[in-house]
UniProtKB/TrEMBL annotation:
It comes from Orlajensenia leifsoniae. The lineage of its organism: Bacteria, Bacillati, Actinomycetota, Actinomycetes, Micrococcales. One of its GO terms (cellular component) is plasma membrane. GO terms for biological process: phospholipid biosynthetic process. GO terms for molecular function: ATP binding; kinase activity. The keyword Nucleotide-binding applies. The keyword Iron does not apply. Its cofactor is Mg(2+). This is Diacylglycerol kinase. Keywords: ATP-binding, Kinase, Lipid biosynthesis, Lipid metabolism, Nucleotide-binding, Phospholipid biosynthesis, Phospholipid metabolism, Transferase.
């Protein structure tokens, strides 16, 4: 599916009626340093003064996004890490109000997958006020724990059980704040030493139940991770489907197969025509499998750690996830 970015509508009688709301994580963003640039841009483009709303530990963005909608925002700017973006996007899903990104975290996963500028705040703000609108998919998930209660959330990039979720659960938050992605090194080591496999029953798009043992399962609306890692090479944010990768290595050689697929084939060969021809000669490996669909139902033999867009969401005994196509509008640069 190819979506054409559509320039936002402008008011025919007074451009000053257009107003942005900026929802920001004060830990990630220096608001005082950014205000002069945004004020100058408002004057240049004829937008009214932006409403600034700060997130808190108790409310990481949902209440602020609801306030933005109530205020009649023409665009909502999310400034923070992946968690802030996910929470704000969840509140905007289906509203028709565009989401603009001001990358301010360590991962910036959605911005990376949309090829947006990561380190130019002024350019990101200009895109928010003068860019074009692009509809993308969101994924929705119902997570049921051992207590029988169901929690519903939406995510933009990936949901995962296994290695990635255990890694996040083992990550020291203070170290992450100081060292960024280096904080995950110790956590990865702890997760890799966990020999427990996922034992699950799944049903993809109503095709019937199947059983599986795996080390990790990830469901992705986007395919790229930091460090230029292309985990899901066929994933697209606007194709009405999500992509699934199942990792089931058997010992050290299995991990070598996985690393070869992800870093060599996806990361190097797939990026050139000659490389893609070489890929046609390689065989699929049992250690890594790809699936594609619109709805996935999973039941686990025991509760397992689950993550959404890089944040831990506790344990899941079962979950159901599905695609909500074109349910979020994202503000893109005009040339996109």
């Amino acid at each position: 599916m190819t979506d054409v970015a559509v320039p936002p509508e402008t008011s025919s009688d007074s451009t000053s009626t257009r107003r942005a709301v900026l929802i920001y994580n004060p830990v990630k963003l220096d608001a005082d340093a950014l205000r002069p640039a945004l004020t100058a841009l408002e004057t240049e483009t004829g937008w009214a003064e932006t409403l600034w709303l700060e997130t808190t530990e108790e409310d990481p963005g949902a209440g602020q996004a609801a306030e933005a909608l109530k205020a009649g925002a023409d665009v909502v700017i999310a400034a923070g890490g992946d968690g802030t973006v996910r929470v704000v996007a969840e509140a905007l899903r289906g509203s028709g109000v565009p989401l603009a990104l001001l990358p301010s975290g360590t991962g910036n996963l959605l911005a990376r997958n949309l090829d947006l500028t990561l380190d130019d705040a002024e350019n990101s703000l200009r895109t928010a006020l003068t860019g074009a609108d692009r509809p993308i998919d969101m994924a929705v998930i119902d997570i049921r724990g051992d207590d029988g209660k169901t929690r519903r959330h939406a995510y933009l990039v990936m949901a995962g059980l296994g290695l990635d979720a255990k890694m996040l659960a083992n990550t020291d938050d203070d170290l992450k704040a100081k060292a960024g992605w280096l904080a995950y090194v110790k956590a990865i080591g702890l997760a890799l030493r966990d020999k427990n496999q996922l034992r699950l029953r799944y049903n993809l798009d109503g095709r019937g139940n199947k059983t599986l043992r795996a080390h990790t399962i990830m469901v992705g609306n986007c395919g790229s991770l930091p460090a230029n890692i292309l985990l899901l090479p066929d994933a697209a944010v606007d194709d009405g489907e999500f992509d699934i990768v199942v990792l089931r290595p058997e010992g050290f050689f299995g991990w070598i197969q996985i690393m070869t697929k992800i870093f060599w084939e996806n990361g190097v060969l797939r990026r050139t025509t000659a490389g893609r021809r070489l890929m046609g000669l390689t065989k699929e490996v049992r250690a890594l499998n790809y699936l594609k669909g619109k709805e996935l139902v999973v039941s686990l033999s025991r509760a397992e750690q689950i993550q959404l867009d890089g944040d831990s969401f506790g344990e899941a005994r079962s979950f159901k996830t599905w695609i909500d196509p074109s349910s979020l509008i994202v503000r893109m640069p005009p040339e996109a």
